[in-house]
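Data card: per-record layout.
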Amino acid sequence: MVSGKYSALSGAVAFEQNLDNISANLANVSTVGYKKSNVSFESLLRGAQQIKQATGINYTRIRANYTDFANGPINKTDSPLDVAINGEGFFKVQGQNGVLYTRDGSFTLDAAGTLLSSSGKPVLDDSNSPITIPSTDGNRITITGDGTISVIDDSGNLAQIGRLGIVKVDDPLKLQKESDTTFSLVAGGQEVPIERPSVVQGGLEISNVNMVKEMADMINTQRTFETYNKVLKTYATIGDTQDDLGTLE
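The structure for this 249-residue chain is written out next.
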């Protein structure tokens, strides 16, 4: 009986963690550049070990938490500093401990003309240097499809500023989520330059979370979690009854 109780407990803990994951996805359904988190489950005992040692009782846990990097829809904003990547790739920004990667292209300029991410991190060019745009008073900023940034003055003169650093990574599993919509590259991962990125000026990529699917997953996960709790309550009731009956000597 004890093994069955712990089996139900492990299932309840795993599905509670999944509920937390789904809640985080739903909370970011409108977040620019957010990528959905998924979890996968596994059984601790397998094959003959489960049948012989655990007499058919098994234990569940979260095997992995991974990110779905599928593209989200691009919303038109017409703001010259809003940029979206159409296809694969990441913008590079300067984090406190190194380069970070993001799909959030809602950029701004500070007083010095430095191009910043939505969280205030300097946006990097294709040589890993911060991008600085001179005074834009009366000038128009253009960003071409390959990420090249230029400024056009009132006379139509064009001055090229630089090119957005846009790369992909050899193994997306090597990207680790940070506190915002950025990712860090863990040991063993390598960035790969994209020769012809596809950049859309005046648009933002929103979250790739499907709210309808997440709500359905939440309902199913909640029901399974409640089932495990009912099983645990049943075991508690059985235990109380045994204590009341006592044992035969």
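Known properties of this structure: The chain has two domains: 2-69+209-245, 74-205. DSSP finds three helices and 17 strands in the chain.

See the next section for split statistics.
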